[in-house]
Amino acid sequence: MKHLLASTPALAVLLGFATASAFAEEQTAWRLFVSDHAQPIVHAIDMETGQKIDTFNVRAPTSLYRSASGRTVFAVQGKGDVISVLSSGISFGDHGDHGDISMEAPKLLDVSFEGKKPSHFVDHEGDIALFFDGEGKTRVTREADILEGKPAIREVTTDAPHHGVAIALGDHVFVSEPNLEKPDELPIGIRVVDRSGASVGGLHDCPDLHGEASSGNLVAVACAKGLLITSTGTGAPAINLLPYADLPEGKSTTLVGGRGLQYFLGNYGPSAVVLIDPKSDDAFRLIELPTRRVHFTVDPVRAKFAYVFTEDGQLHRIDVVAGKVDASLKLTEPYSMDGHWSDPRPRIAVAGDRIVVSDPLKGVLHTVDATTFTPTEEISVEGKPFNLVAVGGSGEAH
């Protein structure tokens, strides 16, 4: 381990380093935040012990989203007209050759964002965009300001309430354009606005806009005919359409971005997913599933893997390099995709070396060893455990 000795006397530096090393201990911590399908509560669970840390009351049943840093978890309550924010209690400091981990109790912050029918949460490098369908407005803020309890907010307003989305990218905000003739339908495109609220360029067509994600320096937005792709950097962003090629008729409406490897994973029809590499000549690889798809996510630790849960109760592991399902595991009783789209069905999260699948009708969380892809313990959770968010990692604790 190398350290730069500047003008500080060498002996003092070495003594200080020896003291710091003596008190440094490698620690791993993972916490799982679990919302209930019917009740306005969020559980925090210590994944190292399987024990509940605390339960937080919110206003309405909630969807959960973690920030990119993992320091905050956002509880988006569409039927409660509010977005609440929790501190995960886990944070990391980068020291170049190693990282520090700090832990404290999770808590519900005294910060919330009121507005009609909040829907989408998007975090890009600490710039957070919160879209409110019932107003057609976006509230943009910074995670650092939220943690200090003083979030500065700038609003971006569209021409009509609609089921939309916004992405904050430095000085610019991508915001969905409503269908003014039929505001109840999906947006028709993306506009880019600067900090003054002025449009930059014209409308980027994106009929049936629904679904966005980022992977590395790329941001993707799903449309009826393909994906709008932009790379982040300085200056006004350039946006290009990547059309669906050599695929059967269909479209993606949900995207997740790869970690470690640059790619996107999207739904495509009821019983398939598609791997998307915008920089490849073979940009789209369709993967057929044995039954209809329920939920999917990527593995942020093991970059070559992603996971899909299907209605027959199976968890499937996708090798994204090979472009195929390479393992499957029966976990739950069947969860039919017939019925209402919002019925309680399993969700997936990855917490370090464990894959966690909620089983809301049984009131348990199934855990799977991610290295061997074999089931391990079950964690009982009262009620109907539904949405999952995992936060954690390893570092030196002083």
TrEMBL record:
It comes from Aminobacter niigataensis. This is Zinc transport system substrate-binding protein. Residues 1-24 form the signal peptide. Keywords: Signal.
